[in-house]
Amino acid sequence: MKYQFPQGFWWGSASSAPQSEGASMEDGKSATIWDHWFAIEPARFHQRIGPRDTSGFYRRWREDIALLRRLNHNTFRTSISWARLIPQGRGEVNPQAVAFYNNVIDELLAQGVTPFINLFHFDMPLAMQQLGGWENRAVVEAYAAFADVCFQLFGDRVKHWFTFNEPIVPVEGGYLYDFHYPNVVDFKRAAVVAFHTMLAHSLAVRHYRARNQDGEIGIILNLTPSYSRSSDPDDVAAAHRADLLFNRSFLDPALRGRYPQELVRLLGAYGQLPTCRAGDAALLKEGVVDLLGINYYQPRRIKSRESPADPADLFMPEWFFSPYEMPGRKMNPYRGWEIYEKGIYDILTNLRENYANPRCFISENGMGVEDEQRFEQHGQIQDDYRIAFIRQHLQWVHRGIQEGSHCLGYHMWTFIDNWSWCNAYKNRYGFVQLDRASQRRAIKKSGEWFAAVAADNGFAEEDNDGRS
Ligand code: BG6
């Protein structure tokens, strides 16, 4: 059997400005929260490698785009750095940044690779964080103005825009679980950040539509389907609440233009709701997307709590459920994430059955592996595990499409080994190997496999190399 994908299927990969550009304090770019956090707490970063030290896309964009072509990408997602384009967060536009992004967009198009451009990938300009970041509505306005500048400058050529990548991650990392700056642990503030992010999203969508640029605008969400340990009603209720908190908190506003009433009631009962102003509900309605990007890495397994939370403790999502370690689960031990391929199909099915089958695509899926050089033979990384990972996920995507899901493409995380936040270069994700010292690039076996799949628009079931 051949897994044949619909004509025009998007084959590509995703990246982001802060993880690939480097030159993080050059040519007029100002500091983001990552530059700042690394400057004050370098020990929080694996081997003390910070955001200056990336695969250098800022200088090597032409070479990298040639590699995208060799990988047979027809689409590629990266982001525009707010702190590079508008160094103070609002006001003056940096002409060097405009020239850089124009070069990248023009070269992608010249190579037949359609650019997908995202506007925020965890990289809050420090100047904006100093005003309170997403807690401050002035930053919401500033972000929307930045987005509008991007539409004005690049919207003649960029036809697929995304307001945010995984907007829940800065909420979790920065305001709940201490893995992003500003390292706050406070649910109520986290809820404000989440709400204001969606207002910022909606305002950007409003600006985009006002320009009538003949393109589409979406958002990229990391969806983690919640599976309950058992059919016991307590486990099921716990999984349902985890789903409300971690998926529907962004999915519902993005696809329905409003929050689930149940979530509002739940947070209201604990005094954790952000303040809503006149006009907010109407604005959220305008934020319903044209296209949803789905990042899928792992499921969320849930059981009910053994005892109720102590009201004297800090209010946290875990008041409502406990994480469940399913015996026999398949793990990616390097990243500590479960691999559950069917999850990608369950997401597509949920979208089809409960959200009117939106236009969507897999915007990230991937596998970070430590010490990959041990798999090198004759100068090439033999990452058969990555090929198996992609193939098994794609089989489920294929099934979802056959059953009617409106899934338009598959993007891998990521094109070239890149800087992974606090994990820096611990785990490698790329189709292309990066030698950090020499900056030499070499296509891995998975890159060749993927190029063949993209050229064929599918792959045969039994063929280990993916070639028909
Ligand atoms: C996604 C992000 O969460 O997963 C990427 O959009 C990130 O920015 C990727 O790099 C892999 O996760 P990590 O934490 O291993 O880098």
From TrEMBL:
The active site is at E364 (nucleophile). It holds the Pfam family Glyco_hydro_1. GO terms for biological process: carbohydrate catabolic process. Coiled coil: none annotated. GO terms for molecular function: beta-glucosidase activity. One of its GO terms (cellular component) is cytosol. PROSITE patterns: GLYCOSYL_HYDROL_F1_1. It comes from the Bacteria. The keyword Hydrolase applies. The keyword Hydrolase applies. Gene3D superfamilies: Glycosidases. Belongs to the glycosyl hydrolase 1 family. This is Glycoside hydrolase family 1 protein.
